[in-house]
Amino acid sequence: MLHPDRLLPSDPTTRDIARNLYSRVKNLPIISPHGHTDPAWFADNQPFGNPTELLITPDHYIFRMLYSQGISLEQLGISPVGKEAGVSVDPKEVWRIFASNYHLFRGTPSRLWLDHVFAEIFDMPDLLTTDTANDYYDNIDALLQTQDFLPRSLFERFNIELLATTESPLDDLKHHDVILDSDWQGRVVTTFRPDPVLDPQFEGFKANLSILGSITGKDTTSYSQYLEALRDRRAFFKAHGATATDHGHPTACTVNLSLSESEALFNKVSTSDFSAAEAELFRAQMLTEMATMSLDDGLVMQIHPGSHRNHNSHLFETFGRDKGADIPIQTEYVRALKPLLDRYGNEPNLSIILFTLDETAYSRELAPLAGHYPILKLGPAWWFHDSPEGMRRIREQTIETAGFYNTVGFNDDTRAFLSIPSRHDMSRRIDCGFLARLVAEHRMDEKEAFEVAEMLAYDLVKQAYKL
Question: CB–CB of 303/353 below 8 Å?
Fold first, then answer.
């Protein structure tokens, strides 16, 4: 199923160069510094439930496509909030629905990832179809019950050097405690994602502030104590291996309010009704506050704005967050980040990684910003654009201005554990193709290209995330 030259350039001369580059990087260890896999998998090291629970139910790339074609989430074993997941749906029937609609994924990165998973991990030589669905399910289900397919075994088989998960500041990190206290050598670290207590429009925000106060022993009705509570949680996460924070705000807006203005705004959003503009202003101030704290504690700051979260109100109200209805929106960075950059843009000890879902910002805003400010680095093609063409476009539109060394390599940003090797393999192939063209056009020496290929696959991400 998998051609050895997949995703490499079609021009024979350039392809030969790309093959040589890829041979150097294909077996390098995987660093996955930004993702959303479940740490309980590695803490408990129990068999995955079944193929449907592993490959379909947690992956919004898959079920959003099926939903777009009229297949309900209930049919896929995703139950409404408050109901036990999957109780009335046969997972094998869900798999058959998936198999009979596998053609929907033609031309998508999901298809490339899935084909890689089926061929390389489960050794399934035939295409997934209605006719092969039962064999696929039974073979995968049997393999998942073996020692070689336990989460820790797969982690080692995938040659993962480090995997970062993402947790709320209200999380007790008990699964990370289990991993740290075990004799397993796999490195799984957490990432501090404070959106539930920074965003006044996050569901349960006021209750979350109360929980934050209970956890830290701080009076989170006071702005100064609220900030101290956030500092305490950051320290707690750092003690559990965190090297980064993660901020999924709707925009990249930042501001520099005075202390009295910040206190008044906090009192408004935490105790009474507030406007959308006030919520945006508070988020903007909190990005600046998070930068202040990162300067103090050294955590790398990741900002990935530009998503209209839970755009499908019916799905959100019925099934909750992260059900494939987050839609990209136009995002502005130059003016939005200026207040933060005015305050911290030249600090040698602060590092901020910028992501986007808006490709129009690559060459116009992001590459020039990252190519100038010492604190800024440019993240890889993210989410809808972590596809072959998306990966090519970000290189073509940013490297001329920002260079390779103001970027951070690749991260897979996935909940789908088994797709991690295929996503990194895709990135390495695309980067080798891009570098091969530079060599073929005599814009880069081949020896330099080998060095850059290794940096993109391994070294830059370790440097950027302080690993």
Answer: yes
- Round to whole Å and give the CA distance between 192 and 107: 35
CB atoms within 10 A of CB 3: 7
Strands 352-354 and 244-247: what pairing?
unpaired
Gap between the Cα atoms of 388 and 401, Å rounded: 21
Length of the chain: 467
Distance CA 27, CA 189 (A): 22
Q: Give the residue from 105, 3, 142 showing the smallest Cα distance to 425.
A: 3
Domains and CATH numbers, the chain: 12-46+153-464 (3.20.20.140), 47-149 (1.10.2020.10)
Structure token pair of residue 158 = 């995938």
DSSP type of residue 96: H
Cα–Cα distances in Å, from 420 out to 8, 244, 414?
19, 20, 7
| Continuous H helices in 240-321 | 259-271, 276-297, 313-319
Nearest to 374 by CA among 398, 344, 340, 399: 344
Q: What is the pTM of this model?
A: 0.95
Return the sign of the alpha-carbon dihedral for residues 13, 16, 20, 21. Answer: positive
SS3 state of residue 336: helix
Look up tokens 């899935």; give the residue. 114
Q: Answer for the pair 307, 248: CB distance below 8 angstroms, yes or no.
A: yes
Residue whose pair of structure tokens reads 């750092």 in the numeric block: 238
Per-residue pLDDT of the chain in tens (467 residues, 90 and over written 9): 799 999 999 999 999 999 999 999 999 999 999 999 999 999 999 999 999 999 998 888 899 999 999 999 999 988 888 765 445 789 999 999 999 999 999 999 999 999 999 999 999 989 999 999 999 999 999 999 999 999 999 999 999 999 999 999 999 999 999 999 999 999 999 999 999 999 999 999 999 999 999 999 999 999 999 999 999 999 999 999 999 999 999 999 999 999 999 999 999 999 989 999 999 999 999 999 999 999 999 999 999 999 998 899 999 889 888 887 889 999 999 999 999 999 999 999 999 999 999 999 999 999 999 999 999 999 999 888 999 999 999 999 999 999 999 999 999 999 899 999 999 999 999 999 999 999 999 999 999 999 999 999 999 999 999 99
